[in-house]
Recover the amino acids of this structure.
């Protein structure tokens, strides 16, 4: 999904992929095939480009540190990535150090979780930051997850607080590129009656994230373009939404390996749905794509996105 | 520019290109290299795909007719393409037959040209049609052309008439895919005082067109996605604009072969500009890319797009 942004910006993108079956290897010309966990493979690949960025959590931070010591530009840096790869220790200790509330940290205090939020930001090497509106993730058993941007009814002060937390983490950890901060909106029972809520950090990801796929159709600058701009030290783009509401729903693979018929139905039924398929082999339960709908009316946008995703996934009877 | 749409829709795109230096061959994996004017090359290439579509006016209609006779699905059809390739005879005769006013046809009647318009439509094999708002093309000596969508101040009745002309031509000629109809808004001196204007057809193109590049950032469905949907007989997408105004300006190559510095300036100066570079070698006067700006205020949108394009092109002193 980063490739279209690279093409438009005139940036040459090379990809290291495990096999030709991976989506990126199917889309980007001349993929280099190899195991990204193998330090020698990684070192040879790094020689082909000016900047190395990592989209796979399996890449060894130690191997990236060695490359960086040898002069390879790695963004985000291995030092920043270490916080993601070892969240139980380093990240939580560091986040606690600079005062964010971290999930688990306050365990036993009887805090009630309200909903899942995601604060998506980008940071460039020079420290420029950009933030998309805080989104909500809705998990739906037996069907695709939903991301709504902006999070409906979120208190503006709390949205500002979540964005501030994400930008602060990006700065403190020296993140370059997209940082997704997964948060919970929580209420303390002692303050529940007056509706006071706060946010706690659940997890971090230092790359374009599921919670930001809505930005491809719904924001002036997508998370993929922004990640490229940031890691290449280009000025960041405008993260503002193009429409009041954007909703993205995962499309799950169904029992019919050929999506073609349901895909035709969805296109005919709603010409405004943006369908994104990942070119993966279809199997039940796998996320094989997503749909995004943008518009003025939240209920309408949600219903359209849900119908399209569920229809392709076979959840709605054909 | 069609490739990102193909990737999102899960469509495999193969390209026949003259050399690896062509933009499409740089972007799409495994390009087939060969001369598209050579019937044997074209026949071999056609075997690789389910549908063949043509983006190069040099392809021989006779060669395409032979392929079609051999069972290759060619969209738009060679019969339709013939009207474009021989506009002086077949097109003008046929358009005259079904009553459109055609430029040249009324030469000598003292009609005054007001401005250039472009009516962009798409048509699927089943006859479904979709139309983007009529755009205006502004030619500026010594710098990049500008396309404004929708055409400012265009009488709604005249816009509807231009769209109707384009959809009618698409239907009458059996066009499948995107059809761009270049028109002139004209006034007859005898009716000039009362402001009565009409449109005459100047030219046709049966493929995604320069006048439709604004749709990539400015419409729910871009001309590239729509062309793919149409030629593959998928239901057409929503052509509505995402913003009140979209302006696209050509970026011309300048004396500095490295665009990098001016490109940085433009990104830093205006984070909302969408920059599209074509990956061509930069030489003075060549169109090497375009910029698009979308927004609420026409004067602001035009000024921003113009500044960005002129700065990259070196028209504004650095």
């Amino acid at each position: 999904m980063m490739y279209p942004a690279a093409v438009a910006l005139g940036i040459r993108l090379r990809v290291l992929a495990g096999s030709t079956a991976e989506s990126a290897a199917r889309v980007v010309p001349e993929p280099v095939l190899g195991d990204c966990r193998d330090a020698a493979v990684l070192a040879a690949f790094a020689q082909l480009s000016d900047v190395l960025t990592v989209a796979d959590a399996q890449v060894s931070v130690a191997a990236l540190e060695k490359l960086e010591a040898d002069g390879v530009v790695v963004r985000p840096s291995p030092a920043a990535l270490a916080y993601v790869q070892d969240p139980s220790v380093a990240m939580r200790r560091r986040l606690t150090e600079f005062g964010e509330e971290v999930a688990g940290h306050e365990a036993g205090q009887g805090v009630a979780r309200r909903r899942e939020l995601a604060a998506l930001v980008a940071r460039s090497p020079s420290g420029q930051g950009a933030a998309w509106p805080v989104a909500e993730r809705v998990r739906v058993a037996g069907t695709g997850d939903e991301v709504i941007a902006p999070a409906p009814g979120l208190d503006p002060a709390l949205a500002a607080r979540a964005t501030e937390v994400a930008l602060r983490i990006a700065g403190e950890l020296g993140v370059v590129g997209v940082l997704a901060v997964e948060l919970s909106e929580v209420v303390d029972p002692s303050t529940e009656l007056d509706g006071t809520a706060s946010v706690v950090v659940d997890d971090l990801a230092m790359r374009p994230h599921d919670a930001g796929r809505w930005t491809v159709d719904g924001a002036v600058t997508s998370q993929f373009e922004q990640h490229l701009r940031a890691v290449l030290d280009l000025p960041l783009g405008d993260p503002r939404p193009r429409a009041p509401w954007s909703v993205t729903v995962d499309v799950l693979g169904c029992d019919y390996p050929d999506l073609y018929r349901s895909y035709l139905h969805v296109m005919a039924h709603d010409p405004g749905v943006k369908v994104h398929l990942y070119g993966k082999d279809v199997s039940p339960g796998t996320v094989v794509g997503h749909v995004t709908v943008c518009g003025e009316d939240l209920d309408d946008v949600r219903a359209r996105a849900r119908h399209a995703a569920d229809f392709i996934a076979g959840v709605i009877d054909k």
